[in-house]
Amino acid sequence: MEKIINFRIINLYAFFLIYFLNSVYTESICAQIVVHDHRNQTTYKSLNHYWSSTRMDNLITATTEGKNAALGAKYRFVRLDGYVLEEASNTEGQAVPLYLYYSKTRSDNFITATPEGIRDAEAGGYQRVRIEGYVLKTVKPEYQHLYQPLWLYYNNQRKDNFTIATLQGMNTAEAGGYRKVRIEGYILKALDNNHRKKTVSLLNAKYLGNYPNDRQNGWSDKIQGVGHDDNNWFFTQKERLWKFPISHDLNKYVELSNLPSGVMSVKIPKELSNQGYNHFGDLVAYKGFLFIPIEAENDAVRKVGGKVPIVKDHISQPKNGNNPLIAVFKASDLTYVGSGALPAQTKAGWCAINPQNGLLYTSENNLSYENKLLSYKIDLQSLIENKNWLSYSGTKELLDENGNIITIKGYMQGGEFSDDGNYLFIINGKGHDFDPKDGGIWVFNFRDGKKELKSSTSGVFKYEFKPSWGRFQEPEGLTYWNLDNQNAPGIKGKLHAILLNSDATSRDEFWFKHYDIRLVMIPPERN
To answer: For the whole model, what pTM was predicted?
Structure first.
């Protein structure tokens, strides 16, 4: 519908940076521009226009979730329309929420901020999706030169709502038979000495493919997790731990009775299996040790309701088999070292250690207001001396892009931090009775806890799986390891995630999915 991309308010350096990266990561950068007003600490975010020629539908969005949904549905980026407030602030006028509504019947997105628009949307059977940001209902006189109206247009023939703020967009709409309906609010259009672009670090993810691909290789049955040190892969099955040199081709079939050079494998130690612990989770390697969550799945041993409350940062000792543990092995030879209790939890499918603070993070089977991330302090010297080495430290909230506590449905399957500890990657989902849109890979900026990226079942950041009673495709663990310049046969990229096909009639196959992760710096605009 519209082929003009307007970058007039972006400086020349940023324009060419975005243009170059656009060929690799499509339009993902265009949704991330942030403006900051240093006078009152108000933050604005870019409002971007997308178009689908297949659906004949326009969409404007200011959220990462909206951008990912647009790209996943094969919308293309058209232009930056302006900036909306990230949070309600009445400094320059009266702020109101900008809502996204959606109609499945019409396949139409409807953006509105007025009572009339909300009534029209709900009367037409549209469902409210989220708040995209905040616009000004009225603008104070001294700021009016910085704002432009956000117009709602409508096409009777296409039954399409089109919310737009730029002159190019309005000209295109009117040429296409759209008519003006009303002003939905006012958005920031220009930058001055007070409204300045921040230098923003943008994380972008690109799916590279699978290797191995739908493969049963002798150790993929009930595969659960993956980790690494500088030179080796580590994988967990339900009851077994594996070590493979980086030079080992993971696609090759391996016989447990005839292991290749450098490959090692051990079962759950009898010390733990005798207590009923029989299920490894997703692991992490840290300072020469492997930290692996382990559960007792037998309900006769493990009491599902046996959650111990947290009182003033103190946790009682767990009863035998009631709660998960963190089992520790030496990375060098897979020798079992010991375990630490997680008595605040009834489930623990994963753990990750932040290299910035050395804390171990894990969670219950889901994340919500009630179930936040749990953190634990690690004392490696006490671990070596067979003393109590794991102690509760606190909780951390993970947030959506609007700052609300996020809900991530069970099962929580894996997690790991980036090398600098700034980002947490987690993965969730299960093999049946589950909507794949609710699962996949989530990326959080760990400094503020906010979601930065979420995979979809298609598009650039793709994690596709088909949970059903016929397929039983289930996400499992993941790890972060830069293999672009390393000798890992068949594998490149930085993020690596498992998908398991739980086969009821034969051994399980798995896919090992790989992703390029890039951090891009968008500089502030030069004045």
So the answer is: 0.66
